[in-house]
Amino acid sequence: MTWLAHIALVPALAGLAAASCAGMSDDCSSNPSPLRQFNPLNFHADTCNLKWTHGCTVLDPHGGLQQKPPPFSLCDALHRPAGLLPIDAYSLALQPNDFAPGSPPFTLHGLWPGSAGGSGGKNQPFGCLYGEEFDEEAILGNLGGLLSHFWPTNAKYNNTMQCFILSEWMKHGTCAVVPGADGTAFRLPQEAYFRTAFVLTAEFNANEALREQLRDLEPLVSTRCVQCAYLATVGWTGTDVASVPRMSADCIDQCFACGDHWDTCAPAQLDSTVLLDPGNAPLKKRSDSSSSENASFLFPLLEYAMPALASSDYMSPWQGTWRSFGAEQLGSGKFEFAQTFIDDVLTVTTDSPYPQTCIYERRGPGELVLRCGAGANHHLEDCLVQRLPDIGRLEVAFLACNHTGAPTPASFYAAMDTSGCGNFLMFRCKASATGCAFSPEGVSAAGSTASEPETETETMSNSEPSPVSHSQPGVAGAPPALLGSWRSIQVSSHYQEGLARWNFTADGQASLQWPNYPGRGVQRYSVSHSDDDASLVLLAGASGTVITCRFQFQYEPVYSYAVLDCGADQETTQWAMGRCNPCSAHCRYSCGPENYFCGAGSCDPANSAQAAAASAGALPSPPRHAHTAHAPKDGGHDWCTPQDSHCWPTKTAIRKLEQALDPAVPRLGLRWSSYPQPQPAPVPTGSINNQSFYGLGDAPAGLRALPAAGAGAWNRASDMCKAALHQNEYRDWNPFIVVFPLNERHVAAALTFAARHRLCIATAGTGHEYNSRNSCPTGGLLIRTILLKDKSFLPTWGEDPALAPAGAFRFGAGAVFAEMHAFSAEHDRAVASGWCSTVGMVGFHLGGGHGPFAPSMGLGVDNVLEIEVLQLGRDDAYGQPVVHKKTASRRRNPQLFWAMLGGGGGVWGVVLSMTIRAHAVPSGGLSHVLVPQGGTFCPDPASPYGYQWLRAMWPRFAAWQLTLNHKVSTQPGFFINTTQYATGGLCAVTWQFNIEYFYAGGQSEPNYLLFRDRLLHDVLQAPATTTAQERNFASAYEYVLSMPPDKFLLAVTNPLPGPPSDSATGSQNSVLVSRQAMEARFASTMMDVLDICVASLASPDPTSPDPSGHRCGFHYLYTSLTGNLGSARPGDTAISPGFRSALMLWNARTLTTRQAMDTVYRLGPNSYFSESSYVMHNWTDRYWGRKGYEQLLAVKRAHDPGNYFWCHHCVGDDPDDAYGEPLGAAAGFVGEGDELQSQLRVG
Description:
1243 residues; alpha+beta; eight-stranded antiparallel beta barrel; eight-stranded antiparallel barrel
């Protein structure tokens, strides 16, 4: 086939696949299924037939035959042919050898070409076009011994070498390409692919430093690393293990570029569909001594390297002098530097006041520890050193040293947004470069030692400079990538000392100045560039003199760099330059506003839609982002949807967000083994081994949540579904992106991303929220703070010690009460908490917070001392979203603090941490009492514990509740079982009343005995022999350890038969009951509710959420508030007055809106934000009261001016939307709801 035919065929196949991409790799003529004997996207039908012929089969789940190892899909998730995807890097899959005696300690599982857009085995290049068909004799015959040694088959998988290697070649080997002699893709011949894999495996086992770098057993390795291994196979024909060559020291440093993530692995974008072309094979470096000293390479110099800083004969040395400048706004960003590495000494020469000499220790690949200074000035600095792609005649590297004593930044991108981090972009000449100088002697604070060249200069003044006119041919203005303000140093042999600044503006002007050398003046130019070659730049001075320059640009996701060569022959002046990307919000610490001009074409080339317009001379408009241009009116929402391509994030944008989140850093903290380890998160229904998120974070490497398709049982559901998991998903709203931040910087990156793309922002910690408030109707972005697990004990609360005499605890936003109780017990303290051990701290406190210690220690809102929160402010002058960090307390941001104490969650920003009061453990410990009582609904008055007994018991129960003091906190639960009603009538309907409470004190205290005995004998009128179940705990965590780990399960699906409605309101109807209502109306109201249950037994209601049609849900009757006798009732929080004064919180299940209004809602005007029904009319009044809500809304608008944050029935939501439909009114709603709406709106 000709190259022209090849070029034409690939688009044709892509078009075919776009129409219909389907099928598996075992679709070929030998497939026993007639419908699967041909597929044009199976590019290796002969190899497929070979697998069928050799019996490489197994029964599929339906009893038919399929190939083994299992066939792969011929299409990715976007319905593109997997055999046409580009190659960006490789996964070197190794496994510890515990099954093949005589083989090396680590054997090969596979060498897999991969795509940066893929994840694991998903969306990867498989079975690529123009890969060779399998040559059985050459591979299994000639290389059989090497395969058995390096690539043995584990017997436990019931596979044969023949079937396994056939599959590996067809799936992966056919896609194996590396950079060729001309830099484009070179296809590895079949035998070369296997020999390359052997070389890599042998090197991994022999090279300790390489093993340390690639300690992940499925790490990414660059295509240049595989190229290096391939070069070792050139000329190797042996078939015995001893003949396997080692990788060359000239190129093995390429294997230190990636590790296990894409942060430091530049995607190669190699075409996987090239034909086999021996003429493009990469060639080895000349090694004969007769070659001249300046001999060039026979193949292009490797463009990406990571010399590892560890001792080895197989790695490039890290020695010599690099010249650099500080890649940040302040500090080192004002100066030029020279870093010289000799042995273990780093000498820094600079024109700043801070030269220094440090001893450095090599911690591992890419990491240094500097020991600098002496005496009182002695200090340690952790540093990251990372090679970047070469440019022109220069090698490039990045050095980041954390001056604060904090650990080394995780990546180049992280360092650029780490306050207190000194960041340096470093350059040095390639060995073959001429006219390039890097002597450190010329860089000093004493002044320039180089001659000042004659230049056209003007003295800087405060007046606006006149533009330089330009009449040269070509396109007026600079190439789009050259626009911006560049920190620059001269690297030519006649360089001038010091940091320079080149400015290229969109109006076709350029200027050069030396910030630390004002006497050199400012040089101004008019700029144009060639219409045929955008790298050819012409600079015209005021006198008409034209300087010809060559511009080379290297894009990096945060901080890009370039080379500008100006002049000709020996008079060339070369500049090494760096600048922040104009569209990057990842380096606020390091970058200033001078480069904020999105749309000028110098963003990520994949997103530079306006580059053509800029190249044609069009001036960029003032920055105005979509989320600003479409700002909603009157507090409404204008969220972006997937149908709006103008704002919906592209794949490239999402990849940038992923890079900003340090995907290589393990997301640990969700694994749980057993008690006494505290559970880190709640357990969803049916999860294996009681793992949170259905085991999403159970892998040793931690959580890797990426979008994936899938369905079925939750334990087998997609990672995306598990990541978004929360309770009671009433609307089937799931996020487009889920972010699991590890730190403040990650949260800021997610917020900026969401604001740029007008995404609805939802926040969640554990997902315990009853009303699925952490769901956005348009998908949007969900920020899960569950991994923010920092914790510390503060013996004294400095802001006001009187508020926390026992000290305070500061917990990260991901803390759950099990962890908080465990930590507080270590300090002989207690914290006020909820009843459920896996409820998250943040949602509990923002909503109000009642629990087992509230009457004595206060509600959740009474215990908060300080909150750290990240918010999105108004866009800056350049149209960029601005993230603010605020600390809220009684003295700092007091209005915000007041609003967050009971104003509900999700709309104030993303909480990073909370500081809460510590309490002394009560003298005598924490006493727990449980009294279970059962009965029936039998109407006969003579029936023991029947319906009439219940009617008489409720007033006695209310009277007992009214006597409880601040030491008692109850959570009685009343449950009804109707399953036997159809066969036994009302006498077969049973009830169970479990009266559970805590007493803050010992079991011998008189009040403890009094309350227990009154419950047994006055309320329940139990026989004298009846006893309560009593326990005493020395700490709250002892109580936690007594509970089964699956006691508080998350219900992960919609418990209703359909969307929430007035007939099936969702969750529970709650009411806060005052002491007066408790005494006067509670007992009769409870019987009214039970009468509704009885009526529904006789006449089932098909609209009930109970499949049986009954209205007999359970009831919780908490007196775990601050309405008990002697409980403190502070008044400086946003909770409603009814919440503050309430004695009891009553949660009732399965009532309609009308039934709730006629019964429980008549007991009080307020409901509890965190435990209430999804459908609620007049919800603003029920949660906070009219005046309270107006105050909260004013604070919300002040602190979230862009209205980015939303949650259902939270501050800022539509007050008239009872049903949770922010995108429109309830469609087709008729009947009872209309009447209710009318009544409520009129009233």
